[in-house]
Amino acid sequence: MINYKSRKSKSIGKLAVLLAASAWGIISIFTIPLKEKFGFNSFEITFVRILLSVIFLCVFILIKDKNLFKISIKDLPLLLLSGLFFLGLCTTYTISI
User: Fold this and answer.
1) How far apart are CA 54 and CA 50, in angstroms?
2) What is the spatial distance between Cα 94 and Cα 41, in angstroms, rounded to a whole number?
3) Do 42 and 90 form a contact (C-beta atoms < 8 A)?
4) Which residues are CB-contacts of 48 (< 8 A; sequence separation ≥ 6)?
5) Are 43 and 93 in contact (CB under 8 A)?
6) Distance CA 71, CA 83 (A)
7) What is the helix, strand, coil percentage profile of the chain, to 5?
8) pLDDT tens digits, the chain, 97 residues: what are they?
9) Within 10 A of 45 (CB to CB), how many other CB atoms are there?
10) What single DSSP character describes residue 14?
11) Distance (Å, whole) CA 32 – CA 38
């Protein structure tokens, strides 16, 4: 049997999961002050989080591979649905904290 996954890619995957879980866990450190000190409501906090995510993701894609910005028309409905799902997920999480 051939092992298609290299040890390096498995390590990077595990590191990515740990970083994502850590970022998700410490998000309240940033959202609570926005709510209490600056008077942001849950939807404004969600907007700021998504805006920053889009900016960082676009910069990463521009550095990595500009061809990743090309979107097929047939993939557009799925892309929009996943975006709406993410928006709802972020809003629900922000309201709960």
Assistant:
1) 6
2) 9
3) no
4) 34, 40
5) no
6) 14
7) 80, 0, 20
8) 445 566 677 788 888 889 989 988 888 888 888 888 989 887 788 788 888 888 998 898 889 888 888 888 898 899 899 989 988 887 787 677 6
9) 23
10) H
11) 10
The CA distance from 54 to 38, in Å, is: 23
Looking up tokens 């892309």 gives 79
Distance CA 18, CA 50 (A): 21
Please name the amino acid found at residue 71.
I
Helix (H, G, I), strand (E, B) or coil at 1: coil
Which residues are within 8 A (CB) of 50 and not within 5 positions of it... i.e. 6 or more apart? 86, 87, 90
In a 10 Å sphere around its CB, with 0-12 CB exposed, 13-18 middle and 19+ buried, how is residue 47 labelled? middle
Residues 6+ positions from 61 with CB-CB distance below 8 Å: 68, 69
Which 8-state DSSP code applies to residue 58? Answer: H
As a residue count, the chain comes to: 97
